[in-house]
Design goal:
By secondary structure, the chain is mostly beta strands. The chain contains 7 helices and 46 strands. The strands form 9 sheets. The chain has a 22-stranded antiparallel β-barrel. Helix 5 packs antiparallel against helix 6.
Length: about 775
């Protein structure tokens, strides 16, 4: 399988942006006169100009926490190095933060696991190329899975790693050496741009340190599951430091193949990240980063239930099957292989008068090659799927004003370019049983689909805060993005189709406004409004033209409006904090994916309007000196307000149904997360115990609200018992842990119909971790 490697085009525009960054940087370096550290933290509060201390703990006083709308969801006491600077455009809407130490202790291994510690975040991920994110019911409108990979629709939830945009969040398969993760809820386009109408996930890794430090961790668990991570950091000179992080992980998988006794749903992951920090003066620093990661996996779908007619069909083709558990019977194994990597440069200058300038330049590449097979013990099709080659370039230039005056602001320019090529095959076997199972005309057939997409965005943005009084701030933000998308799609050998050159270009506005009021020293509140438009999709699929006509090849932009009011403060000083918000989000011209059964192809569509509304609450308590408890949850009612021509679910014979008033898929109504940690001292040892429980209600798994694709609600519990031994040169940490402690059988995704098939979560897993951190 060979697909062309995309290359950056339009060099004048790219070169101009790079040149602008260099010229502004050179001017900034000459103008810089301040000797303050570039990393000085300035966490703005509602109506107060407070500076964050360089050495902080998660267990700071509740009074201090009340000055920010960031909710710490950790249940672990952590003492960190310098706290990274809060985003100067941080919106007034809800933000949930989880620190890296908590992620490691709670065994949040990859981006999909984040949903179990951040209520309101919902993630469906079967492999690195198939990941859908939603926040409060707003996000990817995938809704269907099929042999086609429709590259014409962007996500509504933006994902960033160290200030670099990742258009494919599924490639973040392991959360390693993390400083913290912020989840922004509600339209965040004025902050992040790049289609962040549903929110954003902002991941920050640990950076280079000017003192020698490092860590190594080894884990082993059931089903030959292992993980090794290592990090080393230190000075190269008085003005340079480095950090190197490495990862290896492996699992045989939790789905047993009764055909040969082997296991599926496993993976092997490798990763390496290197950072160099150059600080030639107190007013300038440059961080260079390079990373590489690779994953091979064996994702496996299982039958949840089969149709009454399925046993007879299986007998006709000589197939065996099993349903209702973590078992399958297949002759061919589905495998996927992915590689990703990139380089980035982040430069920060401090200018005269307290101004700051930042430039972030990045290039990334992603390649994915699958070999999908059917879920049967005889060959119907194999060696199929959509190979992807994806290259992105981003440039962001930002100027931040001094803080503490009546008005402070940040303005910037950003550029993004994405080149994607896809080559898809569905290769049917050359045996008579193919026509018996799939119908006449499929024997020996190879359905080929080739797609190409060029996505380019240029934007200007600004955000300003008026400090109207000591207690009241008015925050206004705006971003204008020019989006140009070119695409083409060719389908061969069945339902042949050539889209020709498709193009859409739009100006996409984003805006935000908020009031933040400091009620007293312990309590603050906010009222915010957000507006955003996501880029219009290009329907690179034959199904669109056949189902709805050529005019539907170009989708309208998706518009999101959000209103939110929230409060955060100390119910009991130093013991109990509360963060709560009420929100209402309206989405118009919802972009989603439908499926053409006759031609076995997916296509995109604007699916009408829906609204999402609800309440979020987070309580953080310290009832005892050594006991931390966090209870958080969301009740979200997401329903279609106008969806009169929806595709009908399989159980209804009509073509179109009216889903107005019904629930939106991928949006559980209730989500609850509870975590706790207790630690004590025993001589030179410091034992600790932690627990986590997450419950999420049922949700529809497909856009047609098929009853058979309804994903049942489930609760998962995890426990850890460990001991630390601090020493002069470093700290040892040994822990025994268990995930899915009550061995719950749960599904992460289902495809409906008379026969229901989907992906099942891991069973109870017991493991041990040994770590050593030195300094």
């Amino acid at each position: 399988m060979s697909i062309p490697v995309p290359s950056l085009s339009r060099p004048p525009l790219v070169a101009a942006l790079c040149a602008a960054g260099l010229l502004l940087g050179a001017h900034a370096a000459q103008a810089a006169a301040s000797s303050d550290n570039v990393n000085t933290n300035a966490n703005a509060t509602a109506g107060a100009n407070a500076s964050a201390k360089l050495n902080t703990t998660v267990n700071d006083s509740n009074t201090a926490r009340a000055t920010s709308n960031v909710t710490e969801l950790d249940a672990v006491q952590v003492t960190g190095r310098a706290k990274k600077e809060q985003h100067p455009q941080r919106p007034a809407s809800a933000v949930s933060r989880v620190r890296g130490e908590s992620l490691a202790e709670l065994h949040v291994e990859d981006i999909q696991d984040l949903q179990y510690v951040v209520p309101g975040l919902y993630i469906q991920s079967t492999d690195s190329n198939d990941t859908q994110l939603t926040i409060r019911g707003v996000g990817d409108g995938g809704g269907q899975t099929s042999g086609d990979q429709n590259i014409g629709m962007p996500s509504s939830v933006a994902t960033y790693v160290d200030n670099v945009y990742f258009p494919r969040p599924g490639i973040i398969r392991s959360l390693t050496d993390i400083d913290y993760v912020d989840v922004f809820k509600g339209p965040s386009g004025t902050v992040f741009g790049q289609n962040a109408t549903g929110g954003a996930i902002d991941i920050h890794t640990k950076g280079p340190a000017f003192q020698r430090e490092g860590a190594v961790s080894v884990s082993y668990a059931e089903r030959n599951t292992s993980k090794l991570t290592a990090a080393l950091s230190g000075p190269l000179s008085d003005s340079a430091a480095y950090r190197v992080t490495a990862l290896y992980a492996h699992s045989d998988g939790s789905v047993k193949n009764l055909a040969d006794g082997g296991h599926l749903n496993g993976y092997e992951r490798k990763g390496l990240r290197a950072q160099v920090l150059l600080r030639p003066s107190a007013s300038f620093e440059l961080k260079l980063t390079a990373d590489y990661g690779a994953e091979s996996a064996t994702p496996a779908r299982v039958y949840k239930s089969v149709a009454d007619s399925f046993p007879a069909t299986a007998r006709k083709i000589g197939a065996s099957y099993v349903a209702g558990g973590r078992e399958t019977i297949v002759d061919d194994v589905t495998t996927t292989a992915a590689e990703q990597g990139g380089v980035s440069a982040e430069a920060n200058w401090k200018l005269d008068g307290g101004y700051k300038f930042r430039s972030v330049t990045a290039w990334r590449h992603y390649r994915y090659v699958p070999q999908f097979a059917d879920e049967l013990s005889v060959r119907i099709y194999a060696n199929s799927g959509t190979a992807v080659d994806d290259s992105t370039f981003t440039q962001d230039l930002r100027l931040e004003s001094p803080r503490g005056e009546f008005f402070d602001y940040v303005v910037g320019l950003s550029y993004f370019r994405d080149n994607q090529d896809t080559e898809a095959h569905t290769r049917y076997a050359s045996t008579d049983i193919v026509n018996t199972y799939a119908g006449n005309g499929f024997k020996g057939l190879d359905i080929v689909r080739n797609g190409h997409l060029e996505d380019e965005m240029s934007s200007a943005y600004g955000r300003g805060t008026f400090h109207l009084s000591d207690r009241l701030d008015l925050q206004l933000g705006a971003r204008a993005t020019y989006n140009n998308r070119d695409a083409s799609f060719v389908r061969l050998n069945r339902a042949a189709f050539d889209s020709g050159d498709l193009r859409v270009h739009k100006v996409l506005p984003s805006a935000s406004a908020s009031l933040k009021f400091q009620i007293d020293d312990d309590w603050s509140s906010y009222l915010s409004y957000g507006y955003g438009r996501k880029a219009g999709g290009i329907n690179v699929s034959a199904g669109a033209a056949k189902k709805a006509g050529l005019d539907t090849l170009l989708l309208k932009p998706e518009t999101t409006r959000n209103v939110e009011i929230g409060v955060i403060g100390a119910l009991v000083p130093d013991r109990l904090t509360l963060q709560a918000d009420v929100f209402r989000t309206q989405v118009s011209d919802f972009q989603t994916q439908a499926y053409d059964d006759a031609n076995a192809t997916s296509y995109l569509m604007n699916a009408g309007d829906y609204r999402s509304q609800g309440v979020e609450v987070a309580l953080r308590a310290q009832p005892l000196e050594r006991l931390d408890v966090v209870l958080s949850g969301i009740v979200n009612d997401a329903r279609y307000t106008d969806y009169r021509r929806a595709l009908c679910p399989p159980e209804i014979t009509a073509t179109f149904c009216d889903l107005t008033g019904q629930r939106v898929f991928n949006a559980p109504k209730q989500v609850l997360a509870l975590s706790a940690r207790y630690n004590w001292s025993q001589g030179d040892f410091k034992p600790y115990a932690s627990a986590r429980y997450t419950y999420r209600g049922w949700t529809y798994g497909s856009v047609d609200n098929a009853a058979s694709a309804r994903v049942p609600g489930y609760g998962l519990a995890a426990f850890t018992l460990g001991v630390k031994r601090p020493g002069a040169g470093g700290d040892w940490d040994a822990a025994l842990w268990i995930t899915n402690a009550f061995n719950k059988l749960y599904y992460t995704r289902l495809n409906g119909g008379s026969t229901v098939i989907g992906y099942v979560g891991d069973p109870r897993t017991v493991g041990i971790t040994l770590g050593y951190a030195f300094r």
